[in-house]
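PROTEIN DESIGN WORKSHEET
SECTION A - STRUCTURE
LENGTH: 108
TOKENS:
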């Protein structure tokens, strides 16, 4: 059963993770933009190949791209994990509300 203490923990967690949630979400977006920038810099820096397609393939095969996608993956895992935890705490609050409403109506 979800009690008032558990409700308080959920509310506290949501309040304490607002900034962290914003940071990790913004970091994912930042890394996505950086990945595009990195690709553009790589393609424009290579003067040996004429074809943009060949330059793109070379970029996707590069260690630079591998490192950038790994960094983006890690950021997405952090963001999704935090979002899932926040959603769970929101669900605890919703369940508490439902239980309280049922108690008031003497259904429980």
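SECTION B - SEQUENCE
RESIDUE ASSIGNMENT:
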């Amino acid at each position: 059963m979800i009690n008032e203490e558990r409700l308080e923990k959920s509310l506290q967690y949501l309040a304490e993770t607002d900034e962290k949630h914003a940071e990790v979400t913004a970091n994912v977006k930042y890394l996505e933009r950086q990945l595009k920038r990195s690709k553009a810099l790589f393609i424009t820096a290579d003067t040996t190949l004429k074809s943009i397609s060949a330059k793109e393939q070379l970029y996707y095969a590069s260690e630079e791209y591998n490192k950038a996608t790994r960094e983006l993956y890690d950021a997405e895992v952090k963001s999704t994990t935090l979002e899932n935890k926040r959603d769970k705490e929101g669900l605890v609050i919703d369940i508490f509300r439902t239980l309280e409403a049922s108690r008031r109506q003497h259904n429980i």
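SECTION C - NOTES
The mean pLDDT is 93.
DSSP finds four helices and no strands in the chain.
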